[in-house]
């Protein structure tokens, strides 16, 4: 990435949010040469087009005068910075497994999946067709890093997730695949048939959702 844009991302990560003027001052300190607000706006436009910087929001100060617009990182940008999450989760899993039975660990993971499904706030099953429900599910999963999509199939529908948010952990903690199946089932309102798993070297995790059975009298 171009160095100035990388600096902008780092500044926003450290501060949480910043105006154009604040970015100009911070960049001047970092790169030791003059940079204009026009140039910073140009870099921000590029970063926004790449979904790395969010749309500007008004900073509420209560003081009179022109409103100040602030920029912040998107979730996509935050994921590009190094973190220690997978090490932390790995240690948590090791402690859970050392103190609980496999069944008790699964109960905890099922609760996590059910809580995630509840947060999706999907309409009741009888209110929208499965195709519309799948649109909602894909939006929810993509917001959580799954890179999901769905397609029609002769037997019904296929839901795919091309990214596993836990791929660093599934080799040691296969229970996470079970948690994902529980999550997908809860979101769909039906238990799908598994067609593939990233953890087993498939290109995606794929789930077949059978089409609803037509009534014999319809």
Distance between the termini: 59 Å
Task: Please tell me the total number of domains.
Answer: 2
Radius of gyration over all CA atoms, rounded? 23 Å
Q: What order do the strands of the largest sheet run in, or round the barrel if closed?
A: 3-4-6-5
Overall average pLDDT: 89
CATH architecture of the largest domain: 2-Layer Sandwich
User: What's the shape?
Assistant: globular
Provide an overview of this structure.
The protein is globular, with a radius of gyration of 23 Å. With 218 residues, it is of the alpha+beta class. Mean pLDDT is 89; it is low at 214-218. It has 2 domains: 3-79, Winged helix-like DNA-binding domain superfamily/Winged helix DNA-binding domain (Arc Repressor Mutant, subunit A), CATH 1.10.10; 85-210, 2-Layer Sandwich (Muramoyl-pentapeptide Carboxypeptidase, domain 2). It has 8 helices and 6 strands, in the order H-H-H-E-E-H-H-H-H-E-E-H-E-E. Strand 1 and strand 2 form a beta hairpin. The strands form 2 sheets. It has a 4-stranded antiparallel β-sheet with strand order 3-4-6-5, with helices on one face. It has a two-stranded antiparallel sheet with strand order 1-2. 48% of the residues lie in helices and 13% in strands.
């Amino acid at each position: 990435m171009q160095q100035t844009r990388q600096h902008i991302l780092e500044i926003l990560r450290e501060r949480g949010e910043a105006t154009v003027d604040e970015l100009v001052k911070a960049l001047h300190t970092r790169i030791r040469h003059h940079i204009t607000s026009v140039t910073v706006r140009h870099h921000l436009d590029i970063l926004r087009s790449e979904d790395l910087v969010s749309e500007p929001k008004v900073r509420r100060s209560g003081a009179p005068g022109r409103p100040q617009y602030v920029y912040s990182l998107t979730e996509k940008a935050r994921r590009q910075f190094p973190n220690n999450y997978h090490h932390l989760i790995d240690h948590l899993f090791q402690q859970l497994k050392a103190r609980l039975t496999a069944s008790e660990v699964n109960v905890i993971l099922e609760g996590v999946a059910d809580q995630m499904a509840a947060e999706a706030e999907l309409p009741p099953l009888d209110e929208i067709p499965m195709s519309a429900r799948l649109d909602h599910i894909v939006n929810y999963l993509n917001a959580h890093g799954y890179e999901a999509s769905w397609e029609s199939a002769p037997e019904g529908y296929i839901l795919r997730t091309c990214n596993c948010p836990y791929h660093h952990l599934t080799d040691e903690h296969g229970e996470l695949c079970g948690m994902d199946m529980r999550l997908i089932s809860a979101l769909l309102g039906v238990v799908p048939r598994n067609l593939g798993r990233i953890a087993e070297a498939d290109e995606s995790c794929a789930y077949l959702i059978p089409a609803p059975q037509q009534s014999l009298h319809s």
